[in-house]
């Protein structure tokens, strides 16, 4: 199997993007992989936050990703999504994760660089194919439905700081902030500042740039970001909402249903619809 960085490089050349979708249960993971493959994606990234990983188990997540890769003959890359400490990153890598996001963006810049470099060095010593993402800028919100989140250009990743960060850490990928927030907001429009992203990529073209918090963004904004050089887009909240509403619908229609695969399967179908729609958007030329 080719490495994740290989697929990101391919996406960069084609001006397309890989999808990154979160899961906390085996049914949703399978649904993501099936939908991505059926929609014609070259590969898919699946991720667990620390909370999601605590629920399903790091080793279990790695074993499931490996099993699906084999069963479907399809490149599935498992990512530790926004892991906050060196120890958690190390645990994920030792469990068999293919990719890490060390998110030390809440720390002062110097400490962010030191911690990120420590994770990069560890990953490289284990396997040079592991892809590592750092984060710079203040990405607000969490993966849920929220009313309003203040977004200020002072939170944006600064081009010169991104360049310095990449040089000092040697990360493969960068999570940056240019108007994006985590989760969905209901009382305001979420809007990307594409011009700001252009400035970042002009100053520092080396890493693969990652768009987090794409749930709630318009297709036009996601399309524009990919055209400008985003090679990987993260969706979580839209999948969570689809799953929850799918389950809700089953119990509304059949309140007495007690067979898990009968009340979960329709919810997974709803998740698959979201994944397929996003993959088509990422593959547009
Ligand atoms: Zn994220």
Automatic annotation (TrEMBL):
Active site annotation, chain numbering: 81
CC cofactor: Zn(2+)
Bound cofactor: record note: Binds 2 Zn(2+) ions per subunit. One is catalytic and the other provides a structural contribution.
Keyword set includes Zinc: yes
Organism for this UniProt entry: Candidatus Yanofskybacteria bacterium RIFCSPLOWO2_01_FULL_43_22
Sites where the protein binds Zn(2+) 2: 103, 135
InterPro entries xref list: Aldolase_TIM (IPR013785), Class_II_FBP_aldolase (IPR050246), FBA_II (IPR000771)
Protein name (database record): Tagatose-bisphosphate aldolase
Biological process annotations from GO: carbohydrate metabolic process
Pfam families: F_bP_aldolase
Residues bound to Zn(2+) 1: 82, 182, 212
An example Gene Ontology molecular-function term: zinc ion binding
Keyword vocabulary terms for this entry: Metal-binding, Zinc
């Amino acid at each position: 199997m080719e490495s994740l960085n290989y697929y990101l490089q391919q996406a960069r050349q084609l001006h397309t993007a890989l999808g990154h979708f979160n899961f906390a249960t085996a049914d949703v993971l399978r649904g993501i992989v099936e939908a991505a493959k059926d929609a014609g994606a070259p590969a898919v990234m699946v991720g667990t936050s620390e909370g999601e990983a605590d629920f399903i188990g790091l080793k279990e997540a790695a074993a499931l990703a490996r099993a699906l890769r084999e069963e479907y003959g399809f490149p599935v890359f498992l990512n530790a999504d926004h892991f906050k400490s060196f120890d958690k990153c190390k645990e994920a890598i030792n469990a068999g994760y293919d990719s890490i996001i060390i998110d030390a963006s809440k720390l002062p810049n110097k400490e962010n660089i030191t911690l990120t470099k420590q994770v990069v060095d560890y990953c490289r010593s284990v396997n040079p194919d592991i892809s590592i993402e750092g984060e710079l800028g203040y990405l607000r919100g969490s993966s849920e439905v929220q009313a309003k989140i203040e977004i200020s250009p002072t939170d944006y990743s600064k081009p010169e700081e991104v360049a310095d960060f990449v040089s000092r850490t040697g990360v493969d990928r960068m999570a940056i902030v240019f108007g994006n927030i985590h989760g969905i907001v209901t009382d305001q429009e979420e809007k990307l500042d594409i011009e700001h992203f252009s400035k970042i990529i002009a100053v520092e073209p080396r890493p693969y740039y990652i768009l987090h918090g794409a749930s709630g963004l318009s297709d036009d904004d996601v399309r524009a970001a990919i055209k400008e050089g985003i090679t990987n887009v993260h969706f979580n909240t839209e999948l969570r909402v689809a799953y929850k509403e799918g389950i809700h619908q089953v119990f509304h229609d059949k309140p007495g249903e007690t067979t898990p695969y009968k009340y979960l399967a329709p919810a997974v179908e709803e998740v698959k619809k979201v994944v397929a729609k996003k993959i088509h958007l990422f593959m547009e030329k």
